[in-house]
Amino acid sequence: MEITLRPYELSDRTALEEIFMMNTPKYFDPKELGDFLEYLDIFGDDYVVAVVDRRIVGGGGYWVRSFDQQGGLSWAFVHPDFQGTGVGKELALYRIDQIRQSGVAKTILVETSQHSFGFYEKLGFKLLNRQIDYWAKGIDLYSAVLEL
User: Fold this and answer.
1) What CATH number is attached to the domain comprising 15?
2) Domains: count for the chain
């Protein structure tokens, strides 16, 4: 399976919205969809989509702040049919590499849930803290950091 990663384009919005909803309510609260779409409107330049056989199968954002030398990963998800196939890992590693190449960040933050924390832990992220029912009832906040 060949995975292509490319910058987000406005024409990707509907496919990403559909995949987001496929990951609801396990990974996201339905009320978060508006926040995600607003994120794309504002920060779409730093959003990456994963494509397999000309089909969008996932996406994820990243950011870098110079004032505190921190980078971060945001709004990542993969189509349920492609979870466990390496798409998410390739998407995460690509974004980590983009942050590393900036030469600015010394750490990378991810704020995720109990459902995805193990994935990031395997990539070397260390748990900073946890908050029960933060995103929604039954979806906890796991803040984790990767030292560069």
Assistant:
1) 3.40.630.30
2) 1
